[in-house]
Amino acid sequence: MLMEESTIPNIPNEVINYVEEQHARHRDLTKQKKSLKKCIKKVQGMLKMIEGRNDGLPCTIAAGNIYQQCTVQELRLNLTAKLMIYVGKFVKVHRKLLGIHWDLSQDYETICQNANSIDLVN
After folding, report:
1. Which of 28, 55, 70, 99 could connect to 74 by a Cys-Cys bridge, CB 3.0–4.6 Å?
2. Beta-carbon contacts of residue 36 (< 8 Å; ≥ 6 apart)
3. What superkingdom does the record give (predicted)?
4. Nearest 5°: phi and psi at 64?
5. Residue 120's pLDDT band (cuts 50, 70, 90)
């Protein structure tokens, strides 16, 4: 549990559960973001390796036991397309994280205001 119920008795369990769910979502999205960042760096490294090479040169791509022949230009185009996909996903995940940050910030302010108003009444 995120907060102990005994320290904040005025907050309903539904609110605490909601905040815990948001934190869990935040953790999952952070993991996705790190994974996508790693993929982006890997593709950028591959693009750097073929930088300045003649587009018509042949090259072999290997994945496991599968080998494929292509040209540097084809490889560059495929890697660039992959990079665009990863960056698009990264931006979406980042926006979701910003949304969660905003929501949690607003929710925290509301909880504090409600707790303070309850304390003033008592």
Report:
1. 70
2. 86, 89, 90, 93
3. Eukaryota
4. 70, -125
5. low
Burial annotation 44-60 (CB, 10 A radius, 16+ → b, else e): eebeeebeeeeeeeebe
CA distance 107 to 101: 10
What is the total residue count of the chain?
Answer: 122
What the chain holds in terms of domains, given with CATH numbers, is 13-121 (1.10.287.370)
Contact of 86 with 44, CB cutoff 8 Å: no
Structure-block tokens of residue 55? 């587009």
For range 31-36, the mean pLDDT:
98
Confidence of residue 10 (pLDDT cuts 50, 70, 90): low
Q: Which residue stretches of the chain are H helix? A: 13-49, 72-121
Q: Which amino acid is at 106?
A: Q
Q: What is the pTM of this model?
A: 0.76
